[in-house]
From TrEMBL:
It comes from the Archaea. CDD domains: trimeric_dUTPase. The record marks G129, W130 as: Important for bifunctional activity. It comes from Methanocaldococcus infernus (strain DSM 11812 / JCM 15783 / ME). Its EC number is 3.5.4.30. The keyword Hydrolase applies. The active site is at E142. Pathway: Pyrimidine metabolism; dUMP biosynthesis; dUMP from dCTP: step 1/1. This is dCTP deaminase, dUMP-forming. It catalyses: dCTP + 2 H2O = dUMP + NH4(+) + diphosphate.
Length: 198
C-alpha cells in the first residue's frame, strides 16, 4: 500500500521514517520531493570494466551545473562561461540528494524524477529507482540530458520518493545485510559493482 501525505507525516512524527532535512512544503498527496545536493561524480575510466573499481573525480558545486547530452557537438566550456555555471559536463553525471533518509523494515521507497524535468528530456535516475526497506543514507542520482543542455541548480527539487508499506516487515533490512554496498552513504558514491566479483 502506497503511503498518503497523512501516512508519511504520521511516520515522520513517530520517527519510524526519517527524512533530514524535512520540509512540509515538499510533501505531495502520496510522495515527498527531494532536492539536488552539491556533490557530484564524473567518471574518468576509458572503459567501464565492471570487475575493477572505476576511475572518477568527485566535485562540489556551489550554485549550478550544466548537463549536456553525450552527442552534443557544441563547445561545452563556452556554454559554461556563457551561462555562468560552476560545472559543465557532457554525458552522464552522478549526483545526490540533500536529504538523508532512514527507512524502517516495514517501508520501502521508489525514487522517480520530476515530470517537469522529464518534459525537457532530463532524467535523474536510469534504472536504480528502488530503495529497499531498512535503507539508511542519501539517494544517488544518475543524471542524463537527452535533448539539449540543461542547467540544474543546487537545492532545486529534483525528484520524488514514493513510500509503500510491506505486508510484513523484512526480516533483514538493507543496512543489516553484509553484502549491501551503499548502506549509510552520506555523499554521492560511484558504482561498486566490482565487489560482486570479489
Amino acid at each position: 500500500m502506497i503511503l498518503s501525505d497523512k501516512d508519511i507525516l504520521k511516520n515522520i512524527e513517530s520517527k519510524n521514517l526519517i527524512i533530514k532535512p524535512f520540509n512540509k512544503k515538499h510533501l505531495g498527496p502520496c510522495s515527498y520531493d527531494v532536492t539536488l545536493g552539491d556533490e557530484f561524480i564524473i567518471y574518468e575510466s576509458e572503459v567501464y570494466d565492471l570487475t575493477k573499481p572505476l576511475e572518477y573525480k568527485k566535485v562540489k558545486v556551489k550554485n549550478s551545473l550544466l548537463v549536456c547530452p553525450l552527442n552534443y557537438i557544441g563547445d561545452v566550456e563556452k556554454l559554461k562561461e556563457k551561462y555562468e555555471v560552476d560545472l559543465a559536463v557532457k554525458g552522464g553525471i552522478l549526483g545526490t540528494t540533500n536529504e538523508y533518509i532512514e527507512l524502517p523494515n516495514n517501508i520501502c521507497a521508489q525514487y522517480q524524477g520530476r515530470s517537469s524535468l522529464g518534459r525537457v528530456f532530463l532524467t535523474s535516475h536510469q534504472t536504480a529507482g528502488w530503495i529497499d526497506a531498512g535503507f539508511k543514507g542519501k539517494i544517488t542520482l544518475e543524471i542524463v540530458a537527452f535533448d539539449k543542455p540543461v542547467i540544474l541548480y543546487v537545492g532545486q527539487r529534483i525528484g520524488q520518493l514514493i513510500f509503500s508499506y510491506l505486508n510484513t516487515p523484512a526480516e533483514v533490512g538493507y543496512c543489516e545485510r553484509k553484502m549491501s554496498k551503499y548502506k549509510n552513504q552520506s555523499s554521492v558514491l560511484p558504482s561498486l559493482i566490482h565487489r560482486d566479483f570479489e
